[in-house]
Amino acid sequence: MATDRFVKRRNGVLRKLKAVGADALLVTNFTNVTYLTGFSGDDSFLLVSRTATVLISDGRYETQIADECPGLDVHIRPQKIGIVAAAAKIAARAKIANLGFESNSTTVDESEGLRTALKSAELVPVSGLVEELRLCKDASEVAALREAVTQAEKGFEVLKATLRGEQTELQVAHDLEHSMRSFGATGSSFAPIVAVGAHAALPHATPRRVLISDADFVLVDWGADGPTGYKSDLTRVLVTGKISAKLEKIYRVVLNAQLAGIRNVRPGARCCDVDAAARKVIEDAGFGKKFNHGLGHGLGLDIHEGPRLNSMTEMELKPGMVVTVEPGIYLPGWGGVRIEDDVLVTKDGHDVLTSSPKKFDEIVLS
Amino acid sequence: MATDRFVKRRNGVLRKLKAVGADALLVTNFTNVTYLTGFSGDDSFLLVSRTATVLISDGRYETQIADECPGLDVHIRPQKIGIVAAAAKIAARAKIANLGFESNSTTVDESEGLRTALKSAELVPVSGLVEELRLCKDASEVAALREAVTQAEKGFEVLKATLRGEQTELQVAHDLEHSMRSFGATGSSFAPIVAVGAHAALPHATPRRVLISDADFVLVDWGADGPTGYKSDLTRVLVTGKISAKLEKIYRVVLNAQLAGIRNVRPGARCCDVDAAARKVIEDAGFGKKFNHGLGHGLGLDIHEGPRLNSMTEMELKPGMVVTVEPGIYLPGWGGVRIEDDVLVTKDGHDVLTSSPKKFDEIVLS
């Protein structure tokens, strides 16, 4: 049954709850609610306990929940009762004595509202419990991530096939999202970056009304939001004009750094060591200070989630984790190169989910 | 100077702060930060006090902040220091004794983090202060809303000009967003609803892979996200097949209800009374139970903000408020009709910002 995986995930919550001394968890982060139920809407909380599991939502979502979460207990609150008061009522009815709540997403007003409405229970702040479960993806999640990768890569093939010098960065970004949607994505997983020349030196460049022909290369950082909310995230550079020796040199350094990073992705490797392996290639080439961000981040239902691949994170990688590997070299005034793939940690190493061509001769369109 | 309006808004915060006994406000809601500074990014807090106004952000946004907020004091935190710790440092440096913080957007973990890092100050929960200022739009905001309306309406004209029976709801929704972008929108202000026939009976229908030709009419609920973040929100029904007497009857009732609602939008009118004026028309026609949501909501930087036009809200309208007026009649199994416009409260009445044709003969495309 399709719902089995959600039951399994909620059982994971229950196991972890014991350790924090709570007999239920009120899940207030909407993405965590999706992870634990399959419900894709928002404005809904989930109560998880041994005796009761209840999705607390409102009338707008009644039909959708019945479709997406067959068999799940649902409380549809009336318009006049807020979501916090409704959650307190459900927790009281379930006779919860120690109610855990997600203190990293619950607002101060919401927690005060709970405290006032729920005199019968102790409130226990619980931080990042569901996020920890989400670190390692199950088979259905990996399949959904692969789907989002395919949508992104097919969209990028259209971009390459249609790219013209008289398009602006902004038009290319908009057309890319439109293409990904034609392949089944609900949209972009984040606002795509399309940046030519010097603008590519900004890691978070916003597309402008500037022509693609205004420079000799363009950096594209994009991803698809798949139908069940799982996301992809890639970066490629395309050469659209003159091939310069400087670009080729920097590109090869970044590619070698990226390949070194990917080679180090395996169970037991510390995040900081994967970062260091890629960083060393860039440092050895003399560009260490020009790679001013972490190597990558986890991705799944959120475009940025754990684990973080950077110099501070000592967490060890485990099978099922999915991370981006995206080193870059940025030279203000000249431009930047970043190459990004999505990598699954497997039992005995890794599996690169993305496959858009990235050898230097493959990125030259001119 | 373009920054004047932001100084004016921050002065509004200072005036309201006195009443709550705080000498500074830490703004943690990113949309409120945008409202008070013009900075369009996220992951940034703002400290507002009489002696210091500081935007707390990180390296990714340094260039963008310099562009968007000339003259504003900025603290760029290093990667290793979190945003809460950075904010505490800035508040301590400014010698704040009573630090207000937005308790309706600050998480429990963030407020605990502040408490730990900032021993020198009392923390004062402050709820909805900036949201209250945002209720009444100034001239620049109204201009931005008008821009978002134009982008949405131009996109809809393209939709009408290109609509074909062999398109799916989903394709029409995607093409609509693409069109709005070609007119300068950054995207949709929310996922557009395109729903034919019976599906239009769901107030929050998700577009499907179902052909436009599968029914005789289509409901479109859409809006544009303008370049500075202000949003529009409209609904129209289009007749694409047979004109039925039932549809025409229901349409005319909804339109009369909507016009009655709009006529009642003026300074001093209570929100509940505006709702009642529209609702009465639908009730008198015998469809009262088929209009199962509030009449409308405020809009601005958020697609849903105050004031709410519904039967429970007694707030009086004031000049500068902008609300949607969107009654509907929903008949499960048959379909639904909703008509929505965006209306500005003026000194002596109202100004309807939207102008897409809505007379019955104007919505017949077949």
From TrEMBL, chains A, B:
CDD domains in the cross-refs: APP-like (cd01092)
Gene Ontology terms, MF aspect: metal ion binding; metallopeptidase activity
Entries under Gene3D superfamilies matching the protein: Creatinase/methionine aminopeptidase superfamily, Creatinase/prolidase N-terminal domain
E.C. no: 3.4.-.-
Record keyword Hydrolase present: yes
Start and end residues of each Creatinase N-terminal domain: 9-136
Family of this protein: Belongs to the peptidase M24B family.
Protein's name according to its UniProt entry: Putative peptidase
